[in-house]
Write a structure and sequence with these properties.
Elements lengths: L5 E6 L6 H7 L1 E4 L2 E4 L2 E4 L6 H10 L5 E3 L3 H11 L5 E6 L7 H14 L10 E5 L4 H16 L4 H14 L1 E5 L4 H5 L5 H9 L3 E7 L2 E8 L2 H21 L6 E7 L3 H15 L3 E6 L2 H7 L4 E7 L1
Parallel strand pairs: 1-2, 1-6, 6-7, 11-12
Antiparallel strand pairs: 3-4, 3-5, 8-9, 8-13, 9-10, 11-13
Helix pairs in contact: 3-4, 5-6, 9-10
Length: 297
Protein backbone atom coordinates (compact mmCIF):
# COMPACT_ATOMS: atom_id res chain seq x y z
CA UNK A 1 0.00 0.00 0.00
CA UNK A 2 1.07 3.58 -0.64
CA UNK A 3 2.07 5.57 2.42
CA UNK A 4 -0.28 8.28 1.20
CA UNK A 5 -3.91 7.91 0.23
CA UNK A 6 -3.95 9.83 -3.04
CA UNK A 7 -7.04 11.29 -4.65
CA UNK A 8 -6.99 11.96 -8.38
CA UNK A 9 -8.95 14.72 -10.13
CA UNK A 10 -9.06 15.62 -13.84
CA UNK A 11 -11.05 18.05 -15.93
CA UNK A 12 -13.55 16.60 -18.39
CA UNK A 13 -11.39 17.38 -21.43
CA UNK A 14 -8.92 14.69 -20.26
CA UNK A 15 -11.07 12.06 -21.89
CA UNK A 16 -11.01 8.43 -20.82
CA UNK A 17 -13.79 5.87 -21.26
CA UNK A 18 -16.35 5.91 -18.46
CA UNK A 19 -15.61 2.33 -17.46
CA UNK A 20 -11.89 3.15 -17.10
CA UNK A 21 -12.69 6.27 -15.07
CA UNK A 22 -14.92 4.31 -12.71
CA UNK A 23 -12.48 1.43 -12.38
CA UNK A 24 -9.58 3.76 -11.59
CA UNK A 25 -11.65 6.06 -9.33
CA UNK A 26 -10.92 9.33 -11.12
CA UNK A 27 -13.02 12.34 -10.10
CA UNK A 28 -13.94 14.60 -13.02
CA UNK A 29 -14.69 18.34 -13.04
CA UNK A 30 -16.76 19.29 -16.12
CA UNK A 31 -15.94 22.16 -18.45
CA UNK A 32 -18.79 24.46 -19.42
CA UNK A 33 -20.32 24.39 -22.90
CA UNK A 34 -22.67 26.85 -24.57
CA UNK A 35 -24.73 26.23 -27.71
CA UNK A 36 -27.13 28.87 -29.05
CA UNK A 37 -27.25 30.60 -25.68
CA UNK A 38 -27.91 27.50 -23.60
CA UNK A 39 -25.31 26.27 -21.09
CA UNK A 40 -24.34 22.67 -20.35
CA UNK A 41 -21.80 20.87 -18.19
CA UNK A 42 -19.55 18.69 -20.33
CA UNK A 43 -20.37 15.02 -19.81
CA UNK A 44 -23.01 15.80 -17.15
CA UNK A 45 -25.82 17.65 -18.92
CA UNK A 46 -24.58 16.80 -22.39
CA UNK A 47 -22.62 13.81 -23.69
CA UNK A 48 -20.00 14.46 -26.40
CA UNK A 49 -22.09 12.78 -29.12
CA UNK A 50 -25.06 14.98 -28.19
CA UNK A 51 -22.82 18.04 -28.32
CA UNK A 52 -21.70 17.25 -31.88
CA UNK A 53 -25.27 16.54 -32.98
CA UNK A 54 -26.37 19.95 -31.69
CA UNK A 55 -23.30 21.60 -33.13
CA UNK A 56 -24.20 20.43 -36.64
CA UNK A 57 -27.43 22.44 -36.54
CA UNK A 58 -26.37 25.31 -34.24
CA UNK A 59 -27.04 28.86 -35.41
CA UNK A 60 -23.82 30.19 -33.86
CA UNK A 61 -20.36 28.84 -33.08
CA UNK A 62 -20.51 26.91 -29.77
CA UNK A 63 -18.40 28.24 -26.93
CA UNK A 64 -16.55 26.49 -24.15
CA UNK A 65 -15.13 27.79 -20.89
CA UNK A 66 -13.08 26.46 -18.01
CA UNK A 67 -14.78 25.30 -14.82
CA UNK A 68 -15.14 27.93 -12.12
CA UNK A 69 -12.81 27.45 -9.11
CA UNK A 70 -15.87 26.51 -7.07
CA UNK A 71 -16.41 23.41 -9.20
CA UNK A 72 -12.94 22.16 -8.31
CA UNK A 73 -13.36 23.10 -4.64
CA UNK A 74 -16.57 21.09 -4.48
CA UNK A 75 -14.73 17.98 -5.69
CA UNK A 76 -11.69 18.58 -3.45
CA UNK A 77 -13.99 18.94 -0.43
CA UNK A 78 -15.89 15.77 -1.24
CA UNK A 79 -12.64 13.79 -1.52
CA UNK A 80 -10.86 15.33 1.47
CA UNK A 81 -12.02 13.01 4.27
CA UNK A 82 -10.77 9.91 2.46
CA UNK A 83 -7.36 11.07 1.16
CA UNK A 84 -4.05 12.48 2.37
CA UNK A 85 -3.12 14.27 -0.87
CA UNK A 86 -4.91 15.33 -4.03
CA UNK A 87 -3.41 15.45 -7.51
CA UNK A 88 -5.34 17.46 -10.11
CA UNK A 89 -4.45 17.00 -13.78
CA UNK A 90 -5.62 19.46 -16.45
CA UNK A 91 -5.36 19.99 -20.16
CA UNK A 92 -2.68 22.35 -21.47
CA UNK A 93 -2.89 25.90 -20.15
CA UNK A 94 -2.12 27.04 -23.70
CA UNK A 95 -5.54 25.75 -24.75
CA UNK A 96 -7.72 26.70 -21.78
CA UNK A 97 -7.87 28.61 -18.52
CA UNK A 98 -8.70 25.37 -16.69
CA UNK A 99 -5.21 25.00 -15.19
CA UNK A 100 -5.34 28.50 -13.69
CA UNK A 101 -8.86 27.91 -12.39
CA UNK A 102 -7.71 24.71 -10.68
CA UNK A 103 -4.68 26.51 -9.21
CA UNK A 104 -6.93 29.20 -7.77
CA UNK A 105 -9.24 26.54 -6.38
CA UNK A 106 -6.34 24.73 -4.71
CA UNK A 107 -5.21 27.95 -3.03
CA UNK A 108 -8.70 28.81 -1.78
CA UNK A 109 -9.27 25.24 -0.61
CA UNK A 110 -6.09 25.38 1.48
CA UNK A 111 -6.50 28.92 2.86
CA UNK A 112 -10.18 28.61 3.77
CA UNK A 113 -9.86 25.50 5.92
CA UNK A 114 -11.88 25.77 9.16
CA UNK A 115 -9.77 26.59 12.26
CA UNK A 116 -8.04 23.50 13.55
CA UNK A 117 -9.07 21.43 10.54
CA UNK A 118 -6.41 19.91 8.30
CA UNK A 119 -7.12 19.68 4.62
CA UNK A 120 -5.12 17.49 2.23
CA UNK A 121 -2.65 19.45 0.09
CA UNK A 122 -3.61 19.80 -3.57
CA UNK A 123 -1.07 19.82 -6.40
CA UNK A 124 -2.21 20.92 -9.85
CA UNK A 125 -0.30 19.63 -12.88
CA UNK A 126 -0.54 20.95 -16.44
CA UNK A 127 -0.26 17.85 -18.64
CA UNK A 128 0.70 20.05 -21.64
CA UNK A 129 -1.60 17.88 -23.77
CA UNK A 130 -5.37 17.52 -24.13
CA UNK A 131 -8.24 15.24 -25.06
CA UNK A 132 -7.39 11.53 -25.14
CA UNK A 133 -3.65 12.33 -24.83
CA UNK A 134 -4.35 13.87 -21.43
CA UNK A 135 -6.65 10.93 -20.76
CA UNK A 136 -3.73 8.53 -21.26
CA UNK A 137 -1.77 10.51 -18.66
CA UNK A 138 -4.67 10.39 -16.21
CA UNK A 139 -5.18 6.65 -16.68
CA UNK A 140 -1.51 5.83 -16.17
CA UNK A 141 -1.30 7.99 -13.04
CA UNK A 142 -4.45 6.35 -11.68
CA UNK A 143 -2.95 2.91 -12.25
CA UNK A 144 0.18 3.97 -10.36
CA UNK A 145 -1.98 5.15 -7.45
CA UNK A 146 -3.92 1.88 -7.45
CA UNK A 147 -0.66 -0.09 -7.48
CA UNK A 148 0.43 1.64 -4.26
CA UNK A 149 2.99 4.06 -5.69
CA UNK A 150 4.34 6.76 -3.40
CA UNK A 151 3.47 10.42 -3.96
CA UNK A 152 6.85 11.11 -5.60
CA UNK A 153 6.46 8.07 -7.84
CA UNK A 154 3.00 9.21 -8.91
CA UNK A 155 4.29 12.68 -9.80
CA UNK A 156 7.19 11.15 -11.71
CA UNK A 157 4.81 8.91 -13.67
CA UNK A 158 2.61 11.89 -14.57
CA UNK A 159 5.61 13.78 -15.95
CA UNK A 160 6.98 10.72 -17.75
CA UNK A 161 3.78 9.96 -19.64
CA UNK A 162 2.91 13.62 -20.30
CA UNK A 163 6.30 14.16 -21.95
CA UNK A 164 5.69 11.22 -24.28
CA UNK A 165 2.00 11.65 -25.04
CA UNK A 166 1.15 12.72 -28.60
CA UNK A 167 -2.05 13.74 -30.37
CA UNK A 168 -2.73 13.82 -34.11
CA UNK A 169 -6.16 14.36 -35.68
CA UNK A 170 -7.76 14.90 -39.06
CA UNK A 171 -10.56 17.44 -39.42
CA UNK A 172 -13.45 16.48 -41.68
CA UNK A 173 -14.41 20.00 -42.73
CA UNK A 174 -12.83 23.45 -42.52
CA UNK A 175 -16.23 25.09 -41.96
CA UNK A 176 -15.89 25.42 -38.20
CA UNK A 177 -12.25 26.49 -38.25
CA UNK A 178 -13.20 29.23 -40.73
CA UNK A 179 -16.26 30.31 -38.70
CA UNK A 180 -14.11 30.50 -35.58
CA UNK A 181 -11.45 32.58 -37.31
CA UNK A 182 -8.75 29.89 -36.98
CA UNK A 183 -8.25 29.59 -40.76
CA UNK A 184 -8.32 32.53 -43.24
CA UNK A 185 -11.54 32.31 -45.24
CA UNK A 186 -9.94 32.32 -48.72
CA UNK A 187 -7.38 29.68 -47.79
CA UNK A 188 -10.11 27.59 -46.23
CA UNK A 189 -12.33 27.86 -49.27
CA UNK A 190 -9.47 26.79 -51.55
CA UNK A 191 -8.68 23.76 -49.38
CA UNK A 192 -12.37 22.86 -49.19
CA UNK A 193 -12.70 23.07 -52.97
CA UNK A 194 -9.83 20.60 -53.31
CA UNK A 195 -11.46 18.37 -50.66
CA UNK A 196 -8.28 18.44 -48.57
CA UNK A 197 -8.43 17.27 -44.96
CA UNK A 198 -6.40 19.42 -42.54
CA UNK A 199 -4.45 17.65 -39.83
CA UNK A 200 -3.68 19.09 -36.41
CA UNK A 201 -1.26 18.03 -33.67
CA UNK A 202 -0.18 19.27 -30.25
CA UNK A 203 3.30 20.75 -29.91
CA UNK A 204 4.49 22.26 -26.63
CA UNK A 205 0.91 22.35 -25.41
CA UNK A 206 -0.47 24.19 -28.44
CA UNK A 207 -2.57 22.98 -31.36
CA UNK A 208 -0.64 23.50 -34.61
CA UNK A 209 -1.15 22.49 -38.27
CA UNK A 210 0.29 19.09 -39.19
CA UNK A 211 -0.20 19.27 -42.95
CA UNK A 212 -3.13 18.16 -45.07
CA UNK A 213 -4.36 14.76 -46.19
CA UNK A 214 -5.92 13.95 -49.54
CA UNK A 215 -8.59 11.85 -47.86
CA UNK A 216 -9.52 10.31 -44.53
CA UNK A 217 -7.78 7.08 -45.55
CA UNK A 218 -4.64 9.03 -46.40
CA UNK A 219 -4.82 10.70 -42.98
CA UNK A 220 -5.02 7.28 -41.33
CA UNK A 221 -1.88 6.23 -43.21
CA UNK A 222 -0.10 9.35 -41.98
CA UNK A 223 -1.09 8.56 -38.37
CA UNK A 224 0.08 4.95 -38.59
CA UNK A 225 3.41 5.99 -40.12
CA UNK A 226 3.93 8.63 -37.45
CA UNK A 227 3.37 6.12 -34.66
CA UNK A 228 5.52 3.49 -36.36
CA UNK A 229 8.41 5.94 -36.77
CA UNK A 230 8.25 7.07 -33.16
CA UNK A 231 8.12 3.52 -31.83
CA UNK A 232 11.05 2.61 -34.07
CA UNK A 233 13.10 5.49 -32.68
CA UNK A 234 12.28 4.34 -29.15
CA UNK A 235 13.37 0.78 -29.92
CA UNK A 236 16.65 2.05 -31.36
CA UNK A 237 17.32 3.84 -28.07
CA UNK A 238 17.15 0.49 -26.29
CA UNK A 239 13.79 0.95 -24.57
CA UNK A 240 10.99 -1.62 -24.67
CA UNK A 241 8.69 0.55 -26.84
CA UNK A 242 5.33 -0.55 -25.45
CA UNK A 243 2.62 1.32 -27.36
CA UNK A 244 -0.53 2.76 -25.77
CA UNK A 245 -3.17 4.19 -28.15
CA UNK A 246 -6.52 5.91 -27.76
CA UNK A 247 -8.54 6.49 -30.92
CA UNK A 248 -10.92 9.45 -30.59
CA UNK A 249 -13.72 10.91 -32.64
CA UNK A 250 -16.18 13.79 -32.78
CA UNK A 251 -19.44 12.13 -33.72
CA UNK A 252 -17.69 9.80 -36.19
CA UNK A 253 -17.73 6.44 -34.43
CA UNK A 254 -17.72 4.40 -37.64
CA UNK A 255 -14.53 5.96 -38.96
CA UNK A 256 -12.96 5.74 -35.52
CA UNK A 257 -13.68 2.03 -35.28
CA UNK A 258 -12.04 1.61 -38.69
CA UNK A 259 -8.93 3.43 -37.44
CA UNK A 260 -8.87 1.41 -34.20
CA UNK A 261 -8.97 -1.82 -36.20
CA UNK A 262 -6.02 -0.62 -38.30
CA UNK A 263 -4.07 0.32 -35.18
CA UNK A 264 -4.65 -3.07 -33.57
CA UNK A 265 -3.89 -5.00 -36.74
CA UNK A 266 -0.75 -3.14 -37.84
CA UNK A 267 0.72 -1.85 -34.59
CA UNK A 268 -0.34 -4.40 -31.91
CA UNK A 269 -0.41 -1.94 -28.98
CA UNK A 270 -0.39 -3.17 -25.39
CA UNK A 271 -3.38 -0.91 -24.77
CA UNK A 272 -5.92 0.51 -27.20
CA UNK A 273 -9.44 1.85 -26.88
CA UNK A 274 -12.04 4.11 -28.44
CA UNK A 275 -13.18 7.36 -26.86
CA UNK A 276 -14.76 10.72 -27.66
CA UNK A 277 -12.94 13.88 -28.69
CA UNK A 278 -13.38 16.52 -26.04
CA UNK A 279 -15.93 19.24 -26.93
CA UNK A 280 -13.47 21.71 -25.36
CA UNK A 281 -11.47 21.39 -28.59
CA UNK A 282 -14.18 19.95 -30.84
CA UNK A 283 -16.11 23.21 -30.58
CA UNK A 284 -13.41 24.71 -32.82
CA UNK A 285 -12.92 21.78 -35.22
CA UNK A 286 -16.50 20.56 -35.64
CA UNK A 287 -18.03 17.09 -35.96
CA UNK A 288 -16.42 14.40 -38.10
CA UNK A 289 -12.94 14.64 -36.58
CA UNK A 290 -10.99 11.41 -36.03
CA UNK A 291 -7.57 11.01 -34.50
CA UNK A 292 -5.10 9.20 -32.29
CA UNK A 293 -3.50 9.89 -28.96
CA UNK A 294 -0.59 7.69 -28.01
CA UNK A 295 2.62 7.27 -26.10
CA UNK A 296 5.51 4.84 -26.32
CA UNK A 297 6.81 3.63 -22.98
Amino acid sequence: MSADRIGLVADSSCVIPDEVRRELKVEVVPLDLEIDGRSYRDGVDLAPDEFYEKMATAKSVPRTSQPAPGAFIEVFSRMAPAVDRILCLTLSKELSGTFNSALQAARIFSEDAPPGAARPPVQVVDTRVAAAAAGLVVAEVARAVRAGATWDQVLLRSCHVAERARLLVVVDTLEYLIRGGHVPKLAGMAAAALRLKPMVELVEGEAVPAGVALSIDHAFDVMLRRITDERGATQQSGRSARLHVAVMHAGAAGRARQLLALVRDKLTPVESYLTDFTPAMGAHTGPGLVGVAYFVD
